[in-house]
Every structure is written in structure tokens, then in C-alpha cells.
Amino acid sequence: MTTPLPWAVARETAWAAGYAARTPAVELPFGEAVGSALAAPLVAVSDLPAFPTSAVDGWAVAGEGPWRVEPAQFGGAVLAGQVPEALKPGQAVKIATGAQVPEGTEGIIRLEHTELEDGLVNGPAAREWREAGEEAAQGEELLAAGTPISAPVIGLAAAAGHATLPAHARPAVRVVVFGDELLTSGVSRDGRVRDSLGPMVPHMLTAAGAAAGPSIGPVEDTLEAHVAALREALADADLVCTTGGTMVGPVDHLHAALAEIGAEYVINTVAVRPGFPMLLARTEDGKFIAGLPGNPQSAVIAVVSLVAPLLAGLRGLPLPELGSVTLAEDVPGRGGFTHLALVDRAGHRLGHHGSAMLRGLANAAGFAVIGPDSAGAEGATVELATVPGA
Q: What span, in angstroms and rounded, lies between the C-alpha atoms of 92 and 121?
């Protein structure tokens, strides 16, 4: 074992490795671009709005009032999606919110303020419309490169005339589950336990921005089987997450398998509890292998610590920010290791927090970050590492 890397440094190192290895950006449909970052500034293809649009339901009027209703000329009303005729002085036409304002309009009377009698309209008229280019002019930069692509960003892009966005695609990811002792159905029995990581981890990776394929395994506890499974997964994945085998026990073959396929360590062990025996390696052709411990909670901590930052970098995003939580009780430290302690939203430490347990995790807000050589005191506000997809 090498000297464990400090937890905060490990997060930054994993992110930097992903950012340096991100593939060239391409034009992606909105559904594929969401969750990535803009690889170029977003600019308006046309004025936004492209033409004056009514901000209210009312009556468009021109000249001095009262104004004559002209239903025949305008088909009864100006509706969204129509190009209306010009309005002449003394005329009035009903207009819907979002409709193009007729040329010649000098004001709009809100419906609720309108008096209508004998074909004449009266009431207070005002400029109740959005001017062309009021939100943005054609060619204007709307968002800078590097902006995370969220649902509102997609809405803005569509309104500005785009159908695709320049972004980094979701990395393809496969999960490889190691362990003869694992079952894929039924209950634990006869010394064998039900696999929880194969079903769980791909959903976390999807939430973290990956395109996760089906899990492979459980894989037989031999070096040959480990090497074959890694090669199978790497054939169509940018990142492979393995579960188990990160130590150096009699059936822990991951390190030897990495050497066999020519992978080099980016990170080998992290000073964090739970989750200490995690790793990140890179193959000669630039693909990544993240070794997650076999204990479920430790594996989740490895996803939070290494995999989520790596995926953010691969998609051109900044290092994921940590949240915060105010502790409702004292939380012990773990010596020279960072302690990631399961807490709820109120800052209470949860029970069933052993590295092999998932019950506490299922109810958690995330992991309170207790730095090395320190402890968390009741009432202290500390960083919170959240779990993708939780």
C-alpha cells in the first residue's frame, strides 16, 4: 500500500484527471447535453423576442380614443402565431398574451380595465408589450462557456433559436462486480450474500452524469477472470467501476489485474473512513478504472470521493461543490483520516452506519465531512458530501 492521499486532494486529483481527459465537445441534442457544461458561449440566433409581443390579454389601440372595434379586419382577435395587419388610428382589436403586436399600435388596454359599448372601446392604454430584442439582441452572448447545462439553460437555448448545444457527451460507464460469494437474486444464504452494488451503483453513475450500461458479474475470484472482465468492460466504456478486490487479500486480484492490462494508478488509497481502500487508474489508451471497495457504504463513499469528481471533469464541469450541515450532536474524528459520517438533514448522525450497511444511507442527507485530526462538535457547521441520485 502507498501513503493514502488526503481526501480533499483526492477529489481534486480525480476531477483534474477527468478534465484533462475530456473528449472534444460536439453538438448534442438537448436531452444529451443536459448535465454537461457549455463548451462555447451561448448566443442568440435572433432577437429575443423576435418581434413585439403583448404582455397581457387586452385591446391594442392606435390614435385617440374611444376606439372602433374592427373584428372583420382581424378575424375577431389577434392571437399568438399570427402576423396581424397594421392598426390604423382610431381602431381597436382584441389581442392575446404572447401575440405579435400590430404595427401602428400605440397602447394596449388590459381586458379588466376595458369599457366596451356600441362597438367602441375605452380605457387606460399603456405600452403593455415586450419590444423586439428586449431580452437579447441577435448575436448577443447569453451564457458563458463552462455554464452547467440545466433545464432552464435548455429553455433559454430553445427560445434563442438553438436545437443543439456544444457540450461534452456523457461518458460510457460499466460496473464490474467481483466476488464468488455474491448472489444476484433471492436472499443471502449458504455463506453467500446478495449483491447490492451491481443494482445500485449504475443509478448513482447515471445521476452523476454518466451513460451507465448493465453491470458485469459477479466475476469469479481468479486473476484470469478479473482481467477478462476488465477487458470486456473497457471495450465499450470510458470508465469502468469495479466493486471489491481493492485490498491485497488472498482473493483480491484487482491490483494484479491492473498491472496485467497495463493500467497506471492516478490515486491508490485515500485517507478517508469508511472507504479507505479505493483507487483510480488509467489505461494506456486513456480510459479510467475506479476501484470501489466491496463494502456497500465504502463503495458509495468511493463514488462520492473519486467517481463523481472524475465524471464532472470529463463533462467539462467544475469540481462538484460540497454542501453544508449544522451538526445536532458531536461526531467523532478518525485520527489522521477524514471521517465521512452519515447524517440526516437536521444534522443527526444516523444509526446503521457501518461500512457494510445501507440502512442508514437510505435515509441520509449525505456525509458530514470531519477533517483529519479533528472532531465535529454539536452546533458546528461542516461540509456535506451528497450522494448522486440520493
A: 7
What separation, in Å, do the N-terminal and C-terminal C-alpha atoms of the chain show? 32
| Neighbour-count burial for 195-214, b at 16+ CB within 10 Å, e otherwise | bebbebbbebbbbbbbebee
pLDDT at position 183 is 60
257 φψ region: left (φ > 0), alpha (ψ -120 to 50), beta (else): alpha
DSSP-derived secondary structure for 311-361:
HHHHTTPPPPPPEEEE-SS-B--BTTBEEEEEE-TTSPBPS--STT--HHH
What is the pairing mode between strands 172-178 and 67-69? Answer: unpaired
**Could you tell me which residues come within 8 angstroms of residue 236 by beta carbon, excluding any fewer than 6 positions away?**
172, 174, 213
Going from the N-terminus, what domains does the chain have, and what CATH number goes with each? 5-23+169-314 (3.40.980.10), 53-130 (2.170.190.11), 136-167 (no CATH), 323-385 (2.40.340)
CB atoms within 10 A of CB 151: 9
d(CA 346, CA 151): 29
* Among the listed residues 372, 219, 197, the one whose alpha carbon sits nearest the alpha carbon of residue 298: 197
Q: Of 192, 206, 168, which is closest to residue 20 (Cα–Cα)?
A: 168
Contact 179, 219 (CB under 8 A): yes
Average pLDDT value for residue range 106-120: 93
What is the average pLDDT value for the chain, to the nearest integer? Answer: 92
Q: For position 358, what pLDDT does the model report?
A: 74
Helix (H, G, I), strand (E, B) or coil at 13: helix
pLDDT tens digit string along 259-314? 999 999 999 999 999 988 999 999 999 999 999 998 889 999 999 999 999 999 99
Contacts of 29 (CB under 8 A, 6+ apart): 163, 164
In terms of Cα–Cα distance, which of 225, 241, 220, 219 is closest to 311? 241
Place of cell 452494488: 197
**Distance (Å) of CA 375 to CA 4, 244, 352, 387:** 20, 29, 20, 22
Beta strands 338-343 and 366-370, pairing class = antiparallel
Q: Which residues pair with 177 in a beta bridge?
A: 243
User: What is the spatial distance between Cα 373 and Cα 42, in angstroms, rounded to a whole number?
Assistant: 46
315 near 22, Cβ under 8 Å? yes
> Got the DSSP string for 83-117?
-PPPPPTTEEEEE-TTPBPPTT--EEEEGGG-EEE
301 or 217: which leads in pLDDT: 301
